[in-house]
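Lab notebook, page 48
Experiment: co-folding of the full assembly
Goal: obtain a model of how the components sit together before planning crosslinking
Operator: M.T.
Materials (sequences as entered):
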Amino acid sequence: MRDQYRKAMQWLYLACIALSGIAMVVITLFIPAGVFMRYVMNDPLQWPEPASVIMMVFFSFIGGAAVYRANQQIAVEALMKAVNPASRAVMQWGVHACMLLIAAFMLGYGVHLCVVTWGNTIAEFPWLSTGVVYMPIPIGGALTLLFIVEKIWLGDPPKDDVMYSDAAADLE
Amino acid sequence: MDTLVLLGGFAVLCALGVPVAYALGLAALFGALWADIPLEAVMLRISDGTDDFVLLAIPFFVLAGAIMAEGGMAARLVMLAKVFVGFIRGGMAVVNVLASTLFGCISGSSVADTSAIGSVMIPQMVKQGYTRVFATNVTICGSVQALLIPPSHNAVIYSVAAGGTISVASLFLAGVFPGMLFGICLIGLVLWTARRRNMPKSEPIPLKEVPRIVLEALWGLITIVIIIGGILSGVFTPTESAAVACVYAFLVTFFVYRDYKWRDLPHLVHRVVKTVAMVMMLIGFSVGFGYMMALMQIPAKVTAFFLSISENKYVFLMLVNILLLLLGTFMDLAPMLLICTPIFLPVIAKLGIDPVHFGMIMILNLGIGLITPPVGPTLFVGCAIGKVTIEQVTKELWPFYGAMCIALLLVTYIPALSLWLPGLMK
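Observation: model returned without errors.
Model output:
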């Protein structure tokens, strides 16, 4: 069960990074495409900007959950490193509790925000509900919750985890 | 009491070790509960924080910088710098600083700069007889220039933190002279150290190789022309210029330089996603936090506090510099910019300080914080690349801190350094 959960979280992490990466690459093409259409084809497009912003919100919150699993969120660890192991363990539990709280807030109030705004649409995309734009928040919250459970139950991912596969080569 | 709940809550959460982004969100939540403000309002602000077209410039600048850094640009800029200064005593150290200046025209991140320039320069400097610690120190200090020299994504973060009221183009132009001045201060220090320690000279680059070296480096340096030229001519918005720079960086790296392997591209995107998502989460939660600060009138209270100490803007700038240098040792640049900017903006407005000038002071000051323990990401990366310990490095960093503080004082008390260039464009 523990191994399966760890494996599932590895795949989930990879999916978050892949989705966010694809979104980032796509918006990197959307914006120059808009510039090209405006200056070269003399036919300005209305959709690249709002579409890119929506995708940015997606990759911010979904990628953000992955960043939490990868321990790459900026944190002030000076005090945690300075105290004795017993105090450190207590502080670690405090961090987990705080993370559970904020992730639950993102999930609960994010869903609420989606529900409330579901009937509204975006000016540039009349077929798209505003609620969809807010969906990354509860999704990001849910993903973060799953990663927190992994950390509490199984500890930090091992060094051979897929999340360390992006380390740059030593050039020396 | 409101201030204590919000700022005190944030400080306690940070001290506990909660990631800063989430600490901002939680503190905003506690503040909202305390002040009886609907939590939906905070949630809406957090979402709106990442929903801004200008913010798209951040992933694009980070991506363009990463492609250039890993795609062979750094090595070519080092060669270009060697042509000009490699042959003088301590020349390799000067090359290191100058390469960082040039790389700053592409990257905008001191960590990326340290990683790219350090990987090339530290081994070469060690081979020539420089100590590993000195080579590492020059690299990490030189990399702070990247934060000032355009395009700096931290300038975009500052603009966002200021509520989008400050033009990104003005901030980009404002960073040119402070960045160069910072480089000159460091070069002065390394030349003085080189004479004192009798550091080695390099062989001059043969003249017949110079055109090739210049041409190869020019391919990369055109990026800055695309970005700054595009913005100033009105052809591109900052976001568009960043996106076009990304595509250009990709084409140069994969079809001109051809040093980078296609199979490494997913790893590069992986790294960039992690960096960008981390910054974007910070921005989102900081907007929620900023909303609570505004509701609790904290910026107004801070303004009143500073004005009660002194109404002299030079005294205020000195106090802010000391405060930011202290806070910068504990916290990273981006969160500090996002938290402190909305607090200080009303004060500087009262004292008649230009927000563009103040932005340069904050970025430079907090940039120095990136190479100070206990929390110094650039210091950590530099030590890892230089294969030295933080203790070894910090023991010899003091002269560098001195040179950087001189640069900071000059930028603080000579506003024209930051404001002359943007003024020409008005």
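Interpretation: Chain A touches chain B through 62 residues (CB under 8 Å).
Next step: discuss with group before ordering constructs.
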